[in-house]
Design brief:
Layout lengths: L1 H9 L13 E4 L19 E5 L2 E12 L31 E13 L11 E17 L8 E3 L2 E3 L8 E19 L2 E18 L5 E19 L4 E20 L2 E7 L2 E11 L5 E18 L5 E19 L3
Parallel strand pairs: 1-15
Antiparallel strand pairs: 2-3, 3-4, 4-5, 5-8, 6-7, 8-9, 9-10, 10-11, 11-12, 11-13, 13-14, 14-15
């Protein structure tokens, strides 16, 4: 239901393809600004719609991973793992993993002169909502976290089978631009509240839930090398107050922690024409203190890193 509501509000795109081959389409409203010209940091694969100073963007999609055989399915179990956990063989396919994520936001760009020039230009505010669902095999009886399609998941050392994950996040963001000839700097501040739940199956089935409330600051830069080519680097750093709860057959409990997280990304854009842009990007994300279930059935924490890269193209069409 949440995903359907967000799809209606944010004008979601068609189903996305994996990150290495994303393709985006911008839709023009025929009013003051073309979406391709708006100072909107929408993700690759999003559809953008504008009306005067208001804008919306949305992205929806699902990824399905085909069954594949692990090269060494027992390596992650460790030498001290019980023999009962070492049941995977190279000839046994892993269960199929899949994820679906729906994201969108509604924003407004303040008219020039509304605020002092000290706040920069194109000052904007944005309200966002996201819904994520993942179903993936557990990592061979390990409490170590994993990252699947950019989604950070906890592990369970005493569970088996597959793990279901659902998360909803609401956010509010403020950003502006500072222009220095061919260089544009875009600082931003975001506050967020998210609710995640991970259900583990197997002999020690349990449910792990956590709620994050926090903020992050970001800085993006873009340097126009020519009319056709631009490069950029950016990143963000944040901290959250995390409340964690564990429900299991042999008990459970609740506790709290304060994780930090960061992200860095580099990108390049080539515009051979006014309506077509081709872009490539690569980045690194760090997730701090991800909760998981250790061998004694208690909550444990560990960091996780994720590298990603991709390319895409945007074609602008509509009323001019």
């Amino acid at each position: 239901m949440k995903a359907r509501l967000l799809a209606t509000v944010a004008l979601l795109a068609a189903t996305a393809v994996p990150i290495q081959a994303q393709e985006t389409v911008s839709v023009d409203s025929g009013t003051e600004s073309k979406p391709s010209d708006l100072p909107v940091n929408a993700p690759s694969g999003a559809v953008v719609k504008s009306l005067g100073g208001f804008y919306m963007w949305g992205k929806g999609g699902a990824w399905d991973a085909m069954q594949q055989k692990p090269s060494d399915p027992n390596a992650e179990n460790g030498a001290n793992s019980p023999a009962s956990q070492k049941t995977q063989t190279p000839d046994m396919p892993l269960p199929a993993a899949s994820s679906a994520s729906t994201r969108g936001a509604v924003g407004y760009i303040l008219p020039d002169g509304t605020l002092s020039p000290q706040f920069g230009s194109n000052v904007r505010t944005e309200l966002g909502l996201s819904q994520t669902t993942v179903n993936t095999p557990l990592s061979g009886g390990s409490a170590a976290p994993t990252v699947y399609n950019g989604i950070a998941l906890g592990g369970c050392a005493t569970c088996g089978g597959t793990s279901g994950y659902d998360a909803t996040e609401m956010s509010a963001k403020a950003a502006s631009d500072y222009k220095f000839d061919t260089l544009t700097l875009t600082p931003s501040v975001t506050v967020f509240n998210s609710q995640s739940q991970q259900n583990f199956s197997g002999g020690a089935a349990s449910t792990l839930g956590w709620r994050d409330t926090g903020a992050k600051v970001g800085l993006d830069s873009k340097l126009d090398l020519s009319k056709e080519v631009a490069i950029g680097v950016g990143g963000s750093y944040g901290r959250a107050s995390r409340s964690v709860s564990l429900s299991a057959a042999n008990g459970g409990g609740a506790e709290s922690t304060s994780p930090n997280f960061s992200n860095g990304e580099a990108k390049i854009t080539y515009k051979p024409s006014e309506d077509l842009s081709i872009n490539g990007f690569a980045g690194l994300s760090n997730y701090g203190k991800l909760p998981g279930v250790d061998g004694s059935g208690k909550v444990d924490y560990a960091p996780a890193n994720n590298t990603y890269y991709g390319a895409g193209a945007t074609w602008h069409f509509g009323t001019k």
